[in-house]
């Protein structure tokens, strides 16, 4: 029995490491272009060139997310590795074409770069869900959101400073470095064992969901799911702005020439969030775990609000503010990507998969992100990204706190009245 337990722990650690590294490599094909400031590029229709690039990529990513609602929820487990590899290659090719064409014609390549990337999370997470240790594995994989973005930016910045690369070549060479590792990791992903019969019984069987099943479950939990969508929109908006315009914000705060800053701020955040979320593995009661996940999201909004208020009052430094806001945002963001819907399915005995619920909220989150970036850019708002971000987060925290409380009460009432058979 002891040997079986040790084997189970080792398998869980193996799966967690492989999934973490695989999704970390995915970021190398998505985020390094944001290192560039593109100051020499002319504005397009009055909008900064970099803003246009961000919009183009996020728009492609958003289209992919909406497609993922159907694609991931109906996913068959055969051939997932080949699908991941093909999508990564399709995202890499535009990174080569991007610097070879002059602006504004090269903008379209950022759209095609983002288009294949949006469904990769669902493909990789399909190896994770429905296990006894899904909380730990999912948290480890989701923490790659925090660390990987900063790490690949550090690699990109290092390449730029060391080899004096032009900004437009940074994404291609960064992706090239990670191409071989991601191929090896995809092979290892395919070797991951399926959940055991005991895990399937405890966490519910994870099966594809057709259109009628998706409509049924949305109708069943409509208020809760709409609230989750709204909460996730808020979190995605300011996570994406923090991520895409980190170089601009750090420049305004006086850290513009520090390449390591992108990673240094994210490591303590990743460590705290990983410990917090992974500890949920010890909670066997799915309903309790589902409620705690919602409370963690609520606490994240509170931390965002308080830290931003302290920063605006000049009580804490810009560096500490970025770290604390990052902690709060990821406390809200990460549960959506690993434990929230996994525990929701187990609580209500839903015959489906995490992919449907995750891509439902994710698609609208990124759509809102595109809208805000376009709105700020097209209106010619002259305030800095730091001011825009700090004031926005303050509003986000208040709204998010209220909606999170309402959602927690709704699902508690729902559980008392209804248990899905």
What does this structure look like?
This protein is mainly α and 421 residues long. It has one domain (2-417): Growth Hormone, Chain: A, CATH 1.20.1250.20. The protein contains 18 helices and no strands. It has helices at 2-26, 49-73, 80-100, 107-117, 120-125, 134-163, 170-190, 197-203, 211-220, 222-244, 246-253, 261-264, 266-278, 286-312, 318-336, 340-348, 354-378, 385-417. Helix 2 runs antiparallel to helix 17 (354-378). The chain is globular, with a radius of gyration of 21 Å. 50% of the residues are buried.
Give the SSE map.
Layout: H1 2-26, H2 49-73, H3 80-100, H4 107-117, H5 120-125, H6 134-163, H7 170-190, H8 197-203, H9 211-220, H10 222-244, H11 246-253, H12 261-264, H13 266-278, H14 286-312, H15 318-336, H16 340-348, H17 354-378, H18 385-417
Helix pairs in contact: 1-6, 1-7, 2-4, 2-17, 3-4, 3-7, 6-7, 6-13, 10-15, 10-17, 10-18, 13-15, 14-15, 14-16, 14-18
């Amino acid at each position: 029995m002891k040997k079986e337990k040790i084997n189970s722990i080792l398998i869980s650690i193996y799966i967690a490491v492989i999934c973490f590294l695989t999704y970390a490599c995915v970021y190398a094909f998505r985020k390094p272009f944001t290192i560039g400031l593109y100051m020499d590029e002319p504005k397009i229709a009055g909008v900064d060139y970099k803003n246009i690039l961000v919009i183009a990529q996020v728009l492609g990513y958003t289209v992919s997310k909406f497609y993922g609602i159907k694609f991931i929820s109906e996913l068959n487990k055969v051939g997932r590795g080949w699908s991941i590899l093909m999508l990564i290659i399709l995202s890499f090719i535009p990174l080569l074409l991007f610097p070879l064409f002059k602006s504004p014609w090269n903008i379209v390549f950022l759209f095609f770069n983002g288009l294949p990337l949006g469904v990769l999370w669902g493909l990789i997470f399909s190896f994770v869900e429905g296990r006894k240790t899904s909380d730990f594995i999912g948290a480890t994989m989701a923490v790659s959101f925090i660390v990987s973005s900063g790490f690949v930016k550090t690699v990109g910045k290092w390449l730029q400073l060391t080899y004096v690369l032009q900004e437009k070549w940074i994404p291609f060479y960064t992706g090239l470095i990670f191409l071989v590792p991601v191929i090896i990791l995809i092979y290892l992903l395919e070797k991951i064992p399926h959940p055991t019969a005991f895990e399937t019984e405890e966490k519910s069987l994870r099966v594809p969901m057709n259109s009628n099943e998706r409509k049924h479950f949305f109708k069943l939990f409509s208020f809760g799911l709409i609230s989750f969508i709204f909460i996730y929109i808020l979190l995605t908006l300011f996570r994406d702005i923090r991520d895409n315009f980190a170089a601009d914000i750090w420049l305004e705060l006086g850290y513009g020439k520090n390449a390591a800053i992108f990673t240094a701020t994210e490591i303590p955040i990743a460590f705290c969030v990983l410990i917090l979320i992974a500890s949920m593995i010890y909670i066997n009661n799915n309903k309790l775990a589902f409620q705690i996940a919602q409370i963690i999201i609520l606490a994240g909004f509170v931390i965002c609000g308080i830290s931003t208020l302290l920063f605006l009052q000049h009580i804490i430094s810009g560096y500490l503010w970025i770290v604390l806001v990052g902690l709060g945002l990821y406390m809200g963001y990460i549960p959506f990507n690993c434990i929230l819907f996994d525990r929701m399915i187990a609580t209500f005995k839903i015959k489906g998969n995490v992919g449907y619920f995750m891509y439902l909220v994710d698609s609208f989150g990124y759509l809102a992100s595109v809208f805000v970036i376009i709105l700020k850019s097209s209106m010619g708002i002259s305030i800095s990204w730091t001011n825009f971000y700090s004031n926005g987060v303050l509003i986000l925290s208040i709204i998010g706190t209220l909606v999170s409380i309402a959602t927690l009460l709704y699902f508690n009432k729902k559980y008392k009245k209804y248990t899905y058979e």
